[in-house]
Structures are given as structure tokens and as C-alpha cells.
Amino acid sequence: MSRAPKGGRRRLDASVPPEYDLPTREPRIDSPRTARTLMLLVFIAWLLGTAGAATSVVAVGTPNWVERPSAALLMIVFAVGLTHRGGGHMRIWFPMTAVLGVLAVVLEANVLLAASAAVTAVLAAVWAVLVTRPAETLVRAIGEYVLALVVALSGTVGVAAWNAPVNYQRFNLIVLTVSLGFAITLVWNLGAGLHGLGRQNLAILLGVAALVVMVLAYSSFVRTHGSQSVVQGLSDLVIWTRQTFQGVPRPVEVFIGFPALLVGVSLRSKRREGWWVLVFAVIGTAVLTTSLVTPGAFPTYIGLSTLYSSIRGLLVGLALRRQFMKERSSRASRAVAPVARVEPPRFAPLK
Question: First and final CA of the chain: distance in angstroms?
């Protein structure tokens, strides 16, 4: 007869392997070999589309007709990847995206080109975040951070390859709004809804949301209603930074989007509410995917600005990660923590 322990605090049992906490869609393809072959084809299509679209910003002597078909291929790859990852219906979103891409390439109508560029930017911005995995260690978190930026950069060259005649401010606002709405819709189930947030996570979200509003509102206010001396001083600072370093970090990416990406993938290794932090990471990836939509944008300037933003955003994210990855209470620190929160593989549906 076993004897129950006298007194003491009940501790979590770490010997039981954790399980994924959401129901997932049944595999669409029964054969694992066929599934791996299709994933390989999608990956090859992504490489070809990125390489072809990159010829719009890098002079390599390829014909101009390669650019828009490559952008259409990239848009289709983003649609397939995001639909599969989010557990959507492939028979609906794949044909719609393919038809839009073909019509835009064949007809070259301005409205079709602008719509294709916007869809490419939105899909790339959201997929760059959803393709990440939970990262319990610092090295893995940095790896996921780099992966998301690489995917977003492929969307950037895809948008540039469309060479769509759009107004940058309006285009950027539309892409940012749609990307955030799309991300919130997907994360609602992945993050257990708002009711699943604890006090600490809710405080994080409210703080980040307040920072977003402050940064966007302040920058807009300064540009439109700021005094001439302040506006001139900021312009001179930007010009000096651009002339000295050939690039200017973007504050939205440095203080909001990129740190949220690093913190979000780290929090997901413990609690699925970390998905809510990644909603704000979409702000950074959306700003990145729209950075080359204007034909007059200098690729070298945008590239160096992105490099500076990613480095500074990484440093800010590391500082925030150290704070937010601490145990929430002394009671939690006395319990035996689970090994890690698990999720499906990178190329498997999340729900």
C-alpha cells in the first residue's frame, strides 16, 4: 500500500509529455511521401519566385518580363503556405489567388497590379509570423527571428516586382490594416481568445498597443502640426543619418514589430497566449513588405535601413525577452515546469 506524502506543495508532473492544446485538421494527403514532395515543390517555387522577383531591384541582366510572373508565383506560394498553416480551405484560396495573379500578369491593368501587390504584401507579412515555431532557448529565438525576416524580405521583392502605380502612404495603411485584421482573426483561436489571457499577458498587450498608438499618432502629429523648427530638425537628422550611414532605422520596426517577433516566439514555448504578442510583430513585417512598393525607392537605402532596424530591434527584443520570460510568481517558480509547449511541425497546420 502506497503512502501519501505528508504535507508539502503539490508539484507539476514533468514526466508526462505535453500535447498540443488545439485540435488540428486531418492531413489532406494520406501519403507522407507525396506530402513531402509537394512541400519540396512549394519550397522550390518560393526560391524561384524570390530569385525572379529580386531581378526588379538587382541589375543582373535578365529580361523585364520575368519580374511580374515571378511576383505572381510568389503570391501563390504565400497563399498556399498561409492557407495550409492556418488550416484554411485550399480549394477556395488557391484558385482565387492564382486567377488574380494570371489576370494581373496578362492584362497589366493598374487596379489588378495594385491589388496583386497588396495581396502579396499582406500574405507575406502574416505568413512570415505564422511560419515560426516556439523557441525556448535564445539561439532558437534568434533563428526564428531571422527566418521571419527572410520570408518577409521575399515578400518585399515580390511587391517591388509588381511595379504597381500606387500611393505609398495609402498603400502602406491599407496593407497594415488588413494584415493586422487578418492576424487577429487567425490568432483568436491560436491564442485562446481574449478570455485566455492572464493579467501579465494582458498588461503586455495593452502596453504594446499603447506604444503603437503613441508612436503612430506622435509621428503623424509631428509631420502635420509640428513646429517648423522641430520638423526641420527631424528632417536634418534623417538626412544626416542617411548621408552618414546610407540608411535610417524605422522606429515602428525597432520598438514594436521586431521586438514583438522575438518575444512572441519565446513566450509561445511556455504559453499559447504568446500568439497575441505576435499580432504586433505583423506590424513590423507589414512595414517591411511595403518598403519597396514605390518605384523610386532606392534598394540600397531600404536594405541598409532594414539591416539597421533588424539589429536594433533584436537588441530591444532581447532586453524585453529577458524580462517577460521570467516566472510570473514565486509559486510558479517552485513548481516543476513542463518541458516545453509543443506545436505541430513548421509545415503542418496549426488548427
Answer: 44
C-alpha cell at 337: 515546469
Residue 211, C-alpha cell as written in the block: 506604444
Q: φ, ψ for residue 212 (rounded to 5)?
A: -60, -50
What φ, ψ does residue 223 adopt, rounded to 5°? Answer: -65, -35
**Tens of pLDDT along 115-160?**
999 999 999 999 999 999 999 899 999 999 999 999 999 999 999 9
If you ran DSSP here, which 8-state letter would residue 256 be given? I
Kindly report the backbone phi and psi dihedral angles of residue 94, in degrees, each rounded to the nearest multiple of 5, phi listed first: -65, -50
Q: How far, in Å, are 32, 121, 181, 248 from residue 20 at the CA level?
A: 21, 30, 25, 42
Q: Nine-digit cell at 97? A: 489567388
Tell me which residue of 128, 68, 132 sits closest to 100, measured CA to CA.
68
Helices 168-190 and 274-289, packing angle to 10 deg: 160
Summarised one tens digit per residue, pLDDT across range 233-283 is: 656 666 766 667 677 888 889 988 999 999 999 988 888 888 888 998 999
Torsion, Cα of 256, 223, 242, 251 (10° steps): -10
Q: Rounded CA gap, 174 and 302, in Å? A: 20
The model carries a pTM of 0.85
> What would the pLDDT profile of 31-84 be if each residue is shown by its tens digit?
778 888 988 999 999 999 999 999 999 888 788 899 999 999 999 999 999 999
- DSSP character string of 91-113: HHHHHHHHHHHHHHHHH--HHHH
Helix, strand, coil in percent for the chain, rounding step 5: 70, 0, 30
What is the overall mean pLDDT for the chain? 82
State the Cα–Cα distance between residues 19 and 23, nearest whole angstrom: 11
